[in-house]
Amino acid sequence: MQNQQGSDRQKPPPYKDSALPAGHVSADSLLRARKVLIGAYFVIAAVYFFWRLTIFNPSYPLYSLLFYLSELVGFVWLAINLLSLLRFAPRASPPVKKGLAVDVYIPTYNEPVSLVRRTVIAALRITYPHETWLLDDGNRPEMRLLAKELGCRYIARSDNKGAKAGNLNHAMAQTQGEFIVVFDADFIAAPEFLDRTLGYFTDPKLAFVQTPQEFYNFDSYQHMGHDRAHDLWSEHSLFFHAQQRGRDMHNAAMFCGSCAVLRRAALDDVDGFASSTVTEDMHTSTLLHANGWASVYHPETLSAGLAPHDAISFQRQRIRWAEGAMQIARQEGLFAGRMNLTFQQRMAYLLHVGNYIEGPRHVFLYIASAVTLVFYISPIKVSFAEWAVFFLPFLLVGLLAYKELSRGYTKVIKNEIFNMARCPALVRAFPALFSKKHIDFKITPKIREKPSPFLFPWFMLAINLIALGKAGYDEFFGTPRIDGWPIMIIVMWCCLGAWLAWNVCKLTHRCNRNRRSFSRFPVEIAVSLQNGQASVQAVVTELSDAGLSFKPQNALEALPEGLCQGVLSLCGHDIPFQVTLRPVKAGQKSGGILSWDTQRARDDYTYFMMMDRIRRLEEMKFPDNRTCIAPLARCF
Fold this sequence. Notes:
The chain is α/β, with parallel strands linked by helices.
C-alpha cells in the first residue's frame, strides 16, 4: 500500500470535543436552560400566531393570509432547527486497527493540474497506509503524467455517464479497498485524516464518517469578516459546525461528497454512489440511512478546499445543490414518508430540503413591503403598542434562542445577506421539485472566471428605494393612504430590504474586483532575510502559492532588495526559500515572488502552507459549550 512522504511523522494525540471552560456552568445546567429557552419561545410564538389571526386587514384578506403563512412556515423551519441543535453527539477519535485496506479517491474532470497536484500530494502524505487513486473523468494526458510523476494510481473513463457518481462507481469496480475515502479535486487532507476517522468503523453497521468541509480562500464569495479568531464567518459555518453535529446525535448526519470515509460493503448494499440526481452525496446518505446503516460526524477540521470565488460560481453551485435536493425529495418520497427512515432522520432531511424550498417565500417577503408602499395594500391593521407587545418578544426571544443553540455560528445580519444572495438560485431550482426533466451535473469552477453581472440584488435595491421614495412623496406632498403605525412598520422592513440588497451588491463587487490568481493567507511568522552579507529580522505577513509579504521587525530598518534567502517555519517544519523583493523605505512592507531550486521544494512549501491553514481553521472554531445565557443556566 502507498504511504508516501509522511509515515515518519509523529502521530498527534487523539481528538476529543473541547471541554467546558474553567468556572463555567455545568453541561446539564446549560442543557436545562436551553430547554427552558426553547419552551419559552414556543409559548411566545403560539401566542403571537394566534394574535396575528386577529389583525388581518379585511380589505385584503388573501394578501394578509399569504403574509401570515410566510411567517408561519419560517417559524416551523426555525423550530425544527432549534430542536435539532439542542444536543451535540460527543465524539472522540477511537484507536485505529492496523492493516485495514483503504482506497483514497480523488475524482477530477476539468480542474487545472496545479490544483489537483496539491490534492494528490496531500493524499499521498496521509500517514495511515492506503492507496491513492486519481479518477480522471476528463481522460486527460496531463493527468496521467501527473499521476505517474507523483506515484499515485490512475483510472480514466471513456465516457462521463453518471458524472461524479459514475466516476466513483467506475473506480469501485476496479479497486478492492474495504474503505473508501473521497476528496474533491480541490480539497487538501491533513496527514492524520485516517488516524482520526477509521477507528469509528469498529461498529459493523457504520456506513460512513463525515468530517467538516472548510475553505481556505477567505476572499471567496461566501466569506465575510477578517482572518482573526471567531471573526471570520462563512455561509457554511452553521451547517458544518452546528447542524451536522446536532443531526449526528440522531444518526442523521449527511454524507457531503468529500472529506469522508465510507465502508465499501455499505455502498454495495445500495448499489454504489447514487447517480440518478445531481447531488450524489445527500442521495447516497439517504439510501444508506434508509437501509439501516449508521453514520458518524467527526467535527475536527482535517481538510480544506476552495469556496466559490464570485457570485456566478456561488449561484451555479447553489442551483445544483437545490435541484438535487428537490430531485431526492420527489424521487424518494421524502414528504410522503416512503423511505424507511427514523423520525429524526426524516426531520433532518426535510429540514435540509426545506432550506432550498425557502427561495420563493423569501422573495415574497423581500418584495411585500415594497408592494405595500406602492399599491397601498397593508396585510395588517394594528396599533404600535399592540404590535410591540406581541411582535418584539417573538422576534427577540427567537433570535436569542437561535443564537444560543447555534453555538455562535449564527450571525443574523450575515445570514440574511446570504439568504438574499441565494434567492435567485433557489427560485430557479424550485421547479425541480415537480419536474422530471433531466438535469445536467454542472461543476463549480475552481479558477476565477471573467466577472458576470449579478442583477438580482440591484433589482431588489431599486424596487425598495422606489417604494420608499413614493411613500415619502405621498407623506409630504400627497395624501397618505395607509395611516398610523402600519406604515412605519412597513417602511422599516422596506429599509431593511434595501440595506440587505446593498450589502449583497457590495459583496459581489468585492469579489469581482479581486482578480488574484492565488489566495493569500495572513500570518505572523518571524524570519531572518539574508541578502549577501546583510541580514534583516522580518515578519512574514502573508503567504500565497506564488510569493510572500514582509514587514521589518524594527520599524527603523528597511527590508533588503533583490534576491533574498530565508527559512520559514510552518507546522514545525523549516522551509528554505528564495524571494525577490522590490526596494522600499525603512519600516515599509514589501513583497516578492518565490523561486525554487526543485519542484519538490515548491511542493513542500505549498503542502505545509496548507497544513498551517487547516490548523488555523480548527483553532478559529467556537468552543462546543459557548453560551450567551450563562446567568440563566446558573439558576439550574
